[in-house]
Amino acid sequence: MEVRLRVFAMLRERLGASNVSLALPEGSTVSDLLKAVERRYPRLLKGVSPLLIAVNAEYVEGSFPLSDRDEVALVPPVSGGVGR
Amino acid sequence: MEVRLRVFAMLRERLGASNVSLALPEGSTVSDLLKAVERRYPRLLKGVSPLLIAVNAEYVEGSFPLSDRDEVALVPPVSGGVGR
Amino acid sequence: MILVTRDPLDPEAITAEVRSEACGGVVTFLGTTRNETDGRRVVSLEYEAYEGMAEKILERVAQEVRERWGVDRLAIAHRLGRLELGEVSLVVAVASPHRAEAFAACQYVVGRLKQDVPIWKKEVFEDGEVWVGAETSRHPSTVV
Amino acid sequence: MILVTRDPLDPEAITAEVRSEACGGVVTFLGTTRNETDGRRVVSLEYEAYEGMAEKILERVAQEVRERWGVDRLAIAHRLGRLELGEVSLVVAVASPHRAEAFAACQYVVGRLKQDVPIWKKEVFEDGEVWVGAETSRHPSTVV
Questions:
Q1: Within a domain: A21
Q2: pLDDT in tens, C45-63
Q3: Does C40 contact B at CB distance below 8 Å?
Q4: Which domain holds residue C60?
């Protein structure tokens, strides 16, 4: 199956793109996807913690099972509003 | 001595004036003034509680000694701003 | 800025006055005329102040805010006279580098106006009127 | 009203939208661009969002506010893109019959934006830039 990976903020800058397509074995979970991302982009997630994952714009756990054409977003720490 | 009595809100409406001159014996305190006010206007302060007193625009206690030409304000419960 | 005035208030101008490039946030409170109190329909409001003293006490409130929260970009504006429904009676604007201080200081100032700042409000109903805080509800026939 | 937009925000219009004759008070928070962070001079800011999801989460925040404080006159507007110093990045406006609820709800919403609403801020300094919350200060030479 193939999912669309969306990245934001420093992840987008590091990747040099805001989204990329990723092929995964059938039955892959979010945790499997993260391992695949780390193999393909070893430095992408370095030091980014906590990292949340959203599938089709809903936050999910690592055990969440992915489906073909899912939109998977890597969500680094947010900082909306003002101040730090 | 003579002081100027200033009244506000329902006190002003009850008195029918926003200020009035009051003659007091030398050495009178704020408590003495309140007694004089009650003698002269028996219904003015009825049910108005708590009543604060300001002399020359500063809140004072009952024992505060008055001087000629002082401006004495009778301050009924305030309700600035909004809501109750 | 402390302002007690019979003129309409301009919340945007008052907020703009406290904003600064050193402050990340501005908290503004607008007090407006409510259309009912305890189920009775309010027609209009009237505010009255011991002018001079009200401003003096508000300056003191501003000083308290400076000492307690280190906030010195503060504006308090209170309108006097007759106000129609929906009109703005009060603007409190506080800017601070940190938002928690701005919220706390703004809320404190609004609360202080219920304590010893000599400003009074009369609610005018269709069938009577009452000075808030000092009288129970009063109909024209029972006026002293 | 939930708004995540690249256009400049109009705080007065947003505040006006939540005001009502049934509400005695409106609390508004304006987030503006600060000119320094930890002593370093900020030149400009850049906000980025996962659009669609950010709005969805903000709708959920509004729902939480309704349930917790019974407040349903609420507006949240967040600006995206490059902002100059002093520009407004965030407007949260809450109207409520009782002021304590308005203050609490407004402060809650501002705090929630630091939790899981997918909006990010980059601070641009004279000599570098940093994505707030996710990176330690970074100079051009150390960019990955």
A1: yes
A2: 999 999 999 999 999 999 9
A3: no
A4: 2-140
